[in-house]
Amino acid sequence: MKEMIRLSSIKKNYGDVKIIKDLNFTVYEGEFLTMLGPSGCGKTTTLRMIAGFEEPTSGEIMLNEKPVSNLPPYKRKINTVFQNYALFPHLTVAQNVGFGLKMAGVPKVKRGPQVEKMLKLVQLEGYGNRKLDQLSGGQKQRIAIARALINHPQVLLLDEPLSALDLKLRKQMQLELKRLQRKLGITFVYVTHDQEEALMMSDRIAVMNKGHLEQIADPRTLYEQPKTCFVANFIGESNIFYGKVSEITKTDTKVTIENGYLTLQSDKPVFEKQIVNIVIRPEKVKFSTTEVPGFHIPATVAEHYYAGNVNKSVLRLPNGMALKMTSAGDQKLPEIGKSGFVYWELADAILIKTTSDDVFKAVDNPDFSMVNQMGGD
Amino acid sequence: MEKSIDSENVPITKTKSHYFSKTLIKWGQILPISIWMLLLVVIPLMYVLIMSFMSRDFYGGIVYKFTLSNFAQVFAGQNLKIYAQSIGIGAVSTVVCLLIAYPFAMFIAQKGPVAKTILMALVVVPSVSNSLVRLFSWITLLRKTGVVNTTLEHLGIIHHPLSMVYNTGGIVLGMVYLLLMFMIIPIFNSLDRIDHNLIEAAEDLGATKWQILKEIVIPLSKPGIFAGCIMVFIPSLGYFFVSDVMGGGTSTMMGNLIENQFQTSRNWPLGSAISVMLIVLTLVLLVLFQRRGGDMADLGGR
Ligand SMILES: Nc1ncnc2c1ncn2[C@@H]1O[C@H](COP(=O)(O)OP(=O)(O)OP(=O)(O)O)[C@@H](O)[C@H]1O
Ligand SMILES: [Mg+2]
């Protein structure tokens, strides 16, 4: 795979505030890469540095393996689709789409057919003479995309392009953007804070948090093998336990947690007394009235929510932690108030070695509910 | 059944009384201003309008008899020349104001929020002092024996004093000086309102600085430019004291003509008729402004 963009050791400060702290990742040619992260984590800032609107405080951005730090935005073969469309309100649809050509000095007669071709691409043929206020939000978004594509960029940057649209239109545009990207084979760098959108559209996702990269991987890997608690929480729902490796035998690795213990697969690379986090997805959690060998996690059934194809349940642990469990919609549920034990298949547990700072916080503050709150949103 | 009728009726009466109280509040707010406007604007204007159709006796007294002859006199030959001159001076002043104000407003609009407020305040501050006083200080500076001429003569740069005031140029200078802020404010407002993303979008699409100015900034600030031109041009027709002070009586402007009718000539009906024409011209310009998509709030200077 050919390398398209590489960020190496990118740092960005605004005054004394460190917004981006040592960002490193590579985007490959033809890839749909999404930057995902909570509000304020620096996604827009990163995108603006790639586009050339901001300069990194330190570090180097490479485009086609050549540094671009001294190139102004228009000299990079990169175009941007802005979050609020940023269409020129005094121009018609065709004038907006053809703007890039006009700036490049393409004569009017030659612009017409190209503009029409772009409009066709975004399924807005014949809209050229319209004024912008005669367009819906979705149509404006398509115009913004057509305008950004007309100069045939190698990379298209999209900053939350769908966030202003209502849910139904957003779903439709997600599919359409994906179709467009496949058809054109252009590299897309896409920003969103909607994890579902990211999972659905992306080849790879770069999960960002507070100005650094948590993990970059394809959607399945992110979901199945999150490297940090943050990723486990941000992508899908999680239950997170923390505890200490208390005993390693040939067949078992036992982890002591507050009010109980659990067992890890024996091949996990841990050492005794190591502090670890164990992530278990709600759909993998099982409940039994009798104790299962290897586990001792007492719990009481607290709530059930019916959600169509699945049932969502909350199990209360002795320390107050609310454990999420989902089960198939047709499955019989234990009664509320019933006491029993929680367990899971050994292979379903995800081990997170405690290096990220959010875990240290949890260790300093032995309150299980805090860890669980992180999974709340 | 009854219940449902009831529950339907209740909200209706509620909205009605709600509507009523809302209307009351609205009128309560508007009424004092309306009376004020009636006394200070509408009645005087009506008076001028009626006056413009009245006749005049030999001694300048007003005879309440309907006539159109005032309007015929408005367009008499010697007056047309004055209008042409006023419109010419007004137009030149407007263009000069525009050329100075635009770069200036652009400069301010690019500053941070604090600097913007301070700079805009500085633009407005001089207007709190009396405009006649300010005009006379220009005279002190620029007349033949004024500060500038004497200094230049002392330095040996010139040998004969330059005529910088008491001519048409002096009038334009005075107009520009007094009216410049009315050009800066609406242009600044329209520039300040331009979404910075648009500039970046244009830059992203390959526009140079000059192309951004030509294709994005100037078109988007057009409402401000129109508003500023109207706010400079119209008062420039009426500011008779500028030509009195700075022109030294060399040229008569529309404002002077009106002033004369009310004072020396004692021809109030003719003065009123000219005023009415000026008001009509203003209204025409305002209508044109709104037709071109201008926002009336811009003229208020916010
Ligand atoms: N020009 C600036 N000056 C100072 N601070 C800034 C500037 N631009 C952004 N920031 C700060 O940098 C941080 C990251 O901003 P950024 O816009 O990159 O976040 P984001 O991940 O895009 O968030 P969102 O999802 O809300 O768009 C924020 O805390 C923001 O307040
Ligand atoms: Mg953002």
Automatic annotation (TrEMBL), chain A:
<dbReference type="InterPro" id="IPR008995">
    <property type="entry name" value="Mo/tungstate-bd_C_term_dom"/>
</dbReference>
<dbReference type="InterPro" id="IPR003593">
    <property type="entry name" value="AAA+_ATPase"/>
</dbReference>
<dbReference type="Pfam" id="PF00005">
    <property type="entry name" value="ABC_tran"/>
</dbReference>
<comment type="function">
    <text>Part of the ABC transporter complex PotABCD involved in spermidine/putrescine import. Responsible for energy coupling to the transport system.</text>
</comment>
<dbReference type="InterPro" id="IPR027417">
    <property type="entry name" value="P-loop_NTPase"/>
</dbReference>
<dbReference type="GO" id="GO:0043190">
    <property type="term" value="C:ATP-binding cassette (ABC) transporter complex"/>
</dbReference>
<protein>
    <recommendedName>
        <fullName>Spermidine/putrescine import ATP-binding protein PotA</fullName>
        <ecNumber>7.6.2.11</ecNumber>
    </recommendedName>
</protein>
<dbReference type="InterPro" id="IPR017871">
    <property type="entry name" value="ABC_transporter-like_CS"/>
</dbReference>
<keyword id="KW-1003">Cell membrane</keyword>
<dbReference type="InterPro" id="IPR050093">
    <property type="entry name" value="ABC_SmlMolc_Importer"/>
</dbReference>
<comment type="similarity">
    <text>Belongs to the ABC transporter superfamily. Spermidine/putrescine importer (TC 3.A.1.11.1) family.</text>
</comment>
<dbReference type="InterPro" id="IPR005893">
    <property type="entry name" value="PotA-like"/>
</dbReference>
<comment type="subunit">
    <text>The complex is composed of two ATP-binding proteins (PotA), two transmembrane proteins (PotB and PotC) and a solute-binding protein (PotD).</text>
</comment>
<dbReference type="Pfam" id="PF08402">
    <property type="entry name" value="TOBE_2"/>
</dbReference>
<dbReference type="GO" id="GO:0015594">
    <property type="term" value="F:ABC-type putrescine transporter activity"/>
</dbReference>
<keyword id="KW-1278">Translocase</keyword>
<dbReference type="GO" id="GO:0016887">
    <property type="term" value="F:ATP hydrolysis activity"/>
</dbReference>
<dbReference type="InterPro" id="IPR017879">
    <property type="entry name" value="PotA_ATP-bd"/>
</dbReference>
<keyword id="KW-0813">Transport</keyword>
<dbReference type="InterPro" id="IPR013611">
    <property type="entry name" value="Transp-assoc_OB_typ2"/>
</dbReference>
<feature type="domain" description="ABC transporter">
    <location>
        <begin position="5"/>
        <end position="235"/>
    </location>
</feature>
<keyword id="KW-0067">ATP-binding</keyword>
TrEMBL record, chain B:
<dbReference type="GO" id="GO:0055085">
    <property type="term" value="P:transmembrane transport"/>
</dbReference>
<feature type="domain" description="ABC transmembrane type-1">
    <location>
        <begin position="83"/>
        <end position="289"/>
    </location>
</feature>
<dbReference type="InterPro" id="IPR000515">
    <property type="entry name" value="MetI-like"/>
</dbReference>
<feature type="transmembrane region" description="Helical">
    <location>
        <begin position="117"/>
        <end position="139"/>
    </location>
</feature>
<feature type="transmembrane region" description="Helical">
    <location>
        <begin position="58"/>
        <end position="76"/>
    </location>
</feature>
<feature type="transmembrane region" description="Helical">
    <location>
        <begin position="82"/>
        <end position="105"/>
    </location>
</feature>
<feature type="transmembrane region" description="Helical">
    <location>
        <begin position="270"/>
        <end position="289"/>
    </location>
</feature>
<dbReference type="InterPro" id="IPR035906">
    <property type="entry name" value="MetI-like_sf"/>
</dbReference>
<keyword id="KW-0813">Transport</keyword>
<dbReference type="GO" id="GO:0005886">
    <property type="term" value="C:plasma membrane"/>
</dbReference>
<dbReference type="Pfam" id="PF00528">
    <property type="entry name" value="BPD_transp_1"/>
</dbReference>
<keyword id="KW-0472">Membrane</keyword>
<keyword id="KW-1133">Transmembrane helix</keyword>
<feature type="transmembrane region" description="Helical">
    <location>
        <begin position="224"/>
        <end position="242"/>
    </location>
</feature>
<keyword id="KW-0812">Transmembrane</keyword>
<feature type="transmembrane region" description="Helical">
    <location>
        <begin position="30"/>
        <end position="51"/>
    </location>
</feature>
<keyword id="KW-1003">Cell membrane</keyword>
<feature type="transmembrane region" description="Helical">
    <location>
        <begin position="164"/>
        <end position="188"/>
    </location>
</feature>
<comment type="similarity">
    <text>Belongs to the binding-protein-dependent transport system permease family. CysTW subfamily.</text>
</comment>
<protein>
    <submittedName>
        <fullName>Spermidine putrescine ABC superfamily ATP binding cassette transporter, membrane protein</fullName>
    </submittedName>
</protein>
